[in-house]
Amino acid sequence: MFDLDEGENDSKFGIARRAFIGISASALGYWALRQYLRAQPVEAVGKAGGKPKTVKIVEFTDAGVRQGVVEVQKIVKSDEDWRKQLSPTAYEVTRHADTERAFSGEYWNLHDPGLFRCICCDTALFTSKTKFDSGTGWPSFWEPIAKENILEISDFTFGMTRTAVSCRRCDAHLGHVFDDGPPPTGLRYCMNSVSLRFIKAA
Predict the structure, then answer these.
(1) 3-class secondary-structure state, position 130
(2) Does 194 reside within a domain?
């Protein structure tokens, strides 16, 4: 009888131990995946021939006038160079996919007409014509100024499935896009103010 009880206790301990190991392994795997997705290194050259990578973007004047599609070299810099160029918060957001605190950014409540460019490479990203008050505390837009100028990728951090938005030319993290925006697109491009540079219309 005592042997049976001890066997049951050993069995229960074994199950608990396996569960603990399984949970620990899952947590470690999730942490590793999160780190991998948060800060992917950017290759400075293409895989074939060692030529610099290029992308096609749409150029705009500061007045928001479309100039046409151009092929430009991707902007690639070292962490040290990005740190010199950006504020600490802008660096963490754009280069490591961090998020500024809601209602803390410079542009969440901005209503002036103008153009929003990438803080890292100056690519035109959004216009005040598509900006709306989402009530979230981050500047929100129902569409980018040109789809060619942004990149949308799946983001699985924090146990969620979201769509992250970055600058196509320099891979700066800008924010996320959601499907709860207003007409005509029904989208909400929820951006970080520190990822943007605003140019007020003359």
Answers:
(1) helix
(2) yes
